[in-house]
Amino acid sequence: MSFLKIVLFSLCCNLVRATNTYNAAIVDVSSPDINTGKYASLIREAGERDVDVLVLPTPRNVASETEFDSCINELDNYDEIMKAVSDAAKDARIYVVAQLLERYSCQNREELIRSSVVFDRNGAVISVYRKPVNSGSRCNTTSSKMGHFTTDFGVTFGVLMEDDIILTNVKEVNGIKNFIVSSSSEATFVFAKHFSTFWAYTNNINLIIDNGKFIGNIDVPKFSNNLIVAEFESYGSSDISKTLTITPPTSYFIGDMSQYIIRPLNLEASTKGYTETVCQGNICCQFYVKTNSIGAKQQDVTYGLVVFDGVQNLGNSNIGVQTCSVVACAGLYKRSCFVGSEKNNTNIIFDNILIKGNFSNGNTAHFPTILTTAQSVMNKENFRFTPLNKNTKYVTAELYNTENVLSFGIFGRDYSKDYQTSEFGSINNTSIINELSDYISSDNVQEFFDYLWIRLRVLIFVVSIYVLEMM
């Protein structure tokens, strides 16, 4: 009798687990011959692997106006692709999510639209989320900031595009713990391609990204021909199991950081523990840095203590941002500072980095940001992040015993400062005035006069020599 109870208990446990998990598949995008013509065969392969949801890759990225126009002219097979995917999803009995490119007539011109289309097990379209490829387009192609659908295995998925992760207020997530994200070719911030990792970590969310990436509470992904398959816990990740897996960037950000406050990090002082407070606008960031070893070789990078409080551009949107970070720099001046190292390591081991900032509260959200030159796993042993709550006045991030750090810090979104450019290019004047005021009152003015004085000293020296010779 006891044996029967054990068997029944085991069956019940397995049944409960089965209802709390699902299998998702993405396509290995490293394969050079993946295209829309192979969608049907990929769907059939996923069906044979008992996959519940397959996310197909975006057929192509449009990076230039020339390519944009030619793509519109050649795009005549949208209906054919839709039918092929629908038939294959029905035959394989799986959910399929595909981001397809579609022609769209808007304001007396043709526009290229990214359409994230969801097919159910019967091949029916149950959700469509559209957005223009051209970020400057004025087409109103969708009535919401995200798509969503609910499956027959009891999981509700949100459907986003990559830039939505930064744009969308986390309050609009509405308890959804599983998201499907379509990637885009637009690079916006230094960590834009990695931000989905930080977003998922902070909100305990599973992400399935069409560029071949899983994030969240999953078993070890399994490779099968052209597919990568993983089993997800449907309720998202738990605080106990949360880890951050950081992959090196494929390219480094080189852009104008003239509106940032950047203080050089005193590496020599940091061997004994180094503290500094840096402010801009309404935010002050307290930094404590201690290096266990800076290596025997000359450093190929310096580090800067970076603070920003203002508005940054994202396509045709301008978003409120606050950030505190320790950033690897290739130069001393902010216009030559970029995240990156010419070598595969920085020869610096950080024993401890502690960052604390008085970030704005209210309509805001805060995330950790980490970039390294080698793949790294961050967990409770070497990383801590504490957002604002009723018991704290600061957002804090702490890193222990880590090397090859390119960037570590806190990224804050202030949604109350967001605004969009209008059809005629006019923008929120109050935001511009505030941004200009911050710029004028910041260290940029001091940097300008320092630069001017360096130039004038040379001129004064030459003139002095000339005058002495004439006397």
UniProtKB/TrEMBL annotation:
<keyword id="KW-0732">Signal</keyword>
<keyword id="KW-0378">Hydrolase</keyword>
<dbReference type="InterPro" id="IPR036526">
    <property type="entry name" value="C-N_Hydrolase_sf"/>
</dbReference>
<feature type="domain" description="Vanin C-terminal">
    <location>
        <begin position="265"/>
        <end position="418"/>
    </location>
</feature>
<dbReference type="Pfam" id="PF19018">
    <property type="entry name" value="Vanin_C"/>
</dbReference>
<dbReference type="GO" id="GO:0016787">
    <property type="term" value="F:hydrolase activity"/>
</dbReference>
<dbReference type="InterPro" id="IPR043957">
    <property type="entry name" value="Vanin_C"/>
</dbReference>
<comment type="similarity">
    <text>Belongs to the carbon-nitrogen hydrolase superfamily. BTD/VNN family.</text>
</comment>
<feature type="domain" description="CN hydrolase">
    <location>
        <begin position="35"/>
        <end position="170"/>
    </location>
</feature>
<feature type="signal peptide">
    <location>
        <begin position="1"/>
        <end position="18"/>
    </location>
</feature>
<dbReference type="Pfam" id="PF00795">
    <property type="entry name" value="CN_hydrolase"/>
</dbReference>
<dbReference type="InterPro" id="IPR003010">
    <property type="entry name" value="C-N_Hydrolase"/>
</dbReference>
<protein>
    <submittedName>
        <fullName>Vanin-like protein 1</fullName>
    </submittedName>
</protein>
<dbReference type="InterPro" id="IPR040154">
    <property type="entry name" value="Biotinidase/VNN"/>
</dbReference>
